[in-house]
Amino acid sequence: MGYYISQGDKLNSFQVVLIDRSDTGAGNFDIEFNYDRISWESGGIESPTDNGFGGISASAGYSNGTRIVGSFFEVPGSLVPSSFLDTNANGLIRSP
Q1: Closest Cα partner for 78 from 96, 94, 56, 63?
Q2: Cβ distance 82 to 58 under 8 Å?
Q3: pLDDT in tens, 12-61
Q4: What is the pTM of this model?
Q5: Do the beta carbons of residue 35 and residue 92 sit within 8 Å?
Q6: CB neighbour list of residue 31: distance below 8 Å, 6 or more residues apart
Q7: Would you put residue 44 in left (φ > 0), alpha (ψ -120 to 50) or beta?
């Protein structure tokens, strides 16, 4: 996935996997985040010439939209510049 209108010079590659866990209860599922490559962190809307950096940093997680405590999760490091990038020693590709 490229930044700002499909810029292809830097690409992020990731997936979200929903795993059926009805064995633990009706309607239950796990969410798994898999990260292969994180090369940019902002989409360029604030400044289309930022080359994927310098805008509002990425956020990762989930929400059911209600804002009720326990119905959402944000990955630590969300909205923190450079925290998810492969160039960071603690980037997402290094997370268990």
Answers
A1: 56
A2: no
A3: 899 999 999 999 999 999 999 898 998 888 866 655 556 777 778 888 89
A4: 0.70
A5: yes
A6: 16, 17, 18, 19, 62
A7: left
